[in-house]
Amino acid sequence: MNMQSTPQTAQSSGPVPLSFCILLLSDGRIERMVDQSLEEYFAAIPKASMVWIDCSTTDDEKGIEQIAQAAGFSKIPIPKLTTGFYSAYEDYDSELGIMLPSVTVKIEKMTVHPLFILIRDNIVITVHSDKINRLLRLSRYAPQFFKRISPECTPDKITLMLERIIDENNDRNFEYLREIEMHGDAISKSLIEENLPKKKIAHDIYRMKHVLIDYLNVLWATKDVVDSLRYGDADLITNDEKLLGRIGILSDNIDRHIELSEQMSNVLSSGLEVMQSIYNN
């Protein structure tokens, strides 16, 4: 399913970088590179034990294909990765490709943006639309995070990095559930306003219910990827049960938000039933 893009307000006080690269060097030092060419990022990789490269693109499908090719990814079928229904998980032993949904909600319109994650060896690459800055907050404390995981083996480092990226994306998606809830509450209050046209209220409820249906699809799509990581036994991911348990916690958290969303959907359905009874009478 093709994903559309809508502008997202930056959460930072300074300019948002179009790309960055954070390297955990073999001697334990951290190096950060910002808004440089991919060639410069790739040239620094041999001296690092762990690398995270984040790139924004104006064209999701073309951008991810060009970046994957430049980074030496040859096994992952990029067209298949980009055409999943909100998410995708492609494990090719020495390469792992993931697509996650990133949500923005504006008034009654929800838009889903793709967040791509490419992994091989000791490299994690994230690619997303230049309309969103989903991982900016994570990038600010990534150097401290890299220092903390520096003693770990490479699969453990990759797993911990991936867990943080997914958790950050989930947190931002979960924030929009609160916005949907607030808008739903406003619609519920309008039911007792005698001067408001009931037909408009019914349309508002209908539109909000469809936003919730799309939001639930996003949650289920994310859960599919998380569960694939937890149980898929990918070569690039750790076998440490304690670390895999952290992935399981992500799945449990998604389950809780699915339950909340379904409860809200039921409330809106009840509102539609109330409106129908009003028309019938």
Describe the structure.
- By secondary structure, the protein is of the alpha+beta class.
- The chain folds into two domains: 134 residues, CorA soluble domain-like (Beta Polymerase, domain 2, 2-Layer Sandwich), CATH 3.30.460; 110 residues, Up-down Bundle (Methane Monooxygenase Hydroxylase, Chain G, domain 1).
- Helices cover 53% and strands 21% of the residues.
- It is built from seven helices and seven strands; from the N terminus they run ββαβααββββαααα.
- It has a seven-stranded mixed beta sheet with strand order 2-1-3-7-6-5-4, with helices on both faces.
- Strand 4 and strand 5 form a beta hairpin.
- It is elongated, with a radius of gyration of 21 Å.
